[in-house]
Write a structure and sequence with these properties.
Elements lengths: L15 E4 L4 E4 L1 E8 L2 E7 L6 E8 L7
Antiparallel strand pairs: 1-2, 3-4, 4-5
């Protein structure tokens, strides 16, 4: 990609992930797990059973705008 062009998005945000316990795709909740020097670590939880469906590390300085 051309260095002058801005990408369409900075980060992707998961809204639907597969839950290994429920064995189906569920809308997930994002929860802050750790604050690390390299960024914040989040986990995605199933709203039905509370199982962790995935994790994400948001690098410092790349926080989404509210």
């Amino acid at each position: 990609m051309n260095g002058r062009r801005k990408s369409s998005f900075d980060q992707m945000e998961a809204t639907l992930l597969h839950c290994p316990q429920c064995r189906r795709a569920v809308p997930v909740r994002k929860r802050l797990l750790l604050i690390l020097p390299e960024g914040d670590k989040y986990e995605y939880l199933c709203p039905q059973c509370g199982t962790v469906c995935g994790t994400k590390l948001e690098r410092a300085g790349l926080k989404p705008a509210l």
